Model the fold of this input.
Amino acid sequence: MGRFGLLILLVLFFSLTFWEISKDNFSNHSYLLEAQEEKKILDFNIASYTKEGRSWELRGKSADISGDSIGLKDLEAVFYESERITLTSKEGTFDRRNNLIHLEKDVKLVTETGISLETDSLNYDVAQKIMRSLESVNIQRENFSLKGNSLEARPDLRSAEIKKDIVLEIERTNLEERKIQITCDGPLEIDYEKRVAIFTDNVKVETAEGEITSDTMEVYFDIPETKDISSWKIERIKAIGNVKIIRGENISFSQEAVYSAKEKKITLIGRPKLVIYSEEKISLP
Done:
């Protein structure tokens, strides 16, 4: 074979090699396993890439490989969504065929904006970008605590549903009696895009000033265009169905009630009824 023939072979070889690399790098979801396909590996790192760049990473101290299933120890998953999200646990499995991550034992999620979630076990669907847990969950941020059972949510928690036994506690730092507690049987739906949280079934709000009960309650938020979650404020609250408001010995009933945070006013809608107890004599004209 002459020099010309050798040159042709080299050109073909490098062309095919470049094509294989390009095809892997620009596939919709190409996975890179930074270790050999062995039964057990240490200090592993699995990454997912799209055309836009890195989608998520999964790393840990050890992994046991059995076909498409990878058993994981002391793992950390990082998602690159609208914000950076870190998810850690003591144990877990990665199903490469179905793109499912299962985490258990000391599961904790932390978002870039300061929201944290803790639970005993969690499943993450990589394709749908949805987290699910059948266990009790505890969600914390700077001025509130949210607890409940059975979660379905996006990793950034901007869209979430907790199905039952909801307890929300909010700290009001500008008042002496600071805590507000909202409970319901569930579900609770949170939609960040619509800026609303909907509490369902046997809803009860307790504050130092009194309490409100209703069938359903919609809480609307004023959310500035910032990642500072401490700037979130309640804009208005709408209680719907069998509304009962107790303040001291005074009670009011209605079909609906709307509270405006800006005006600090409650409006009763639908056959309102007031029951007022007073030690003073009331004279009518």
Notes: Residues 3-37 have pLDDT under 50 and may be disordered.
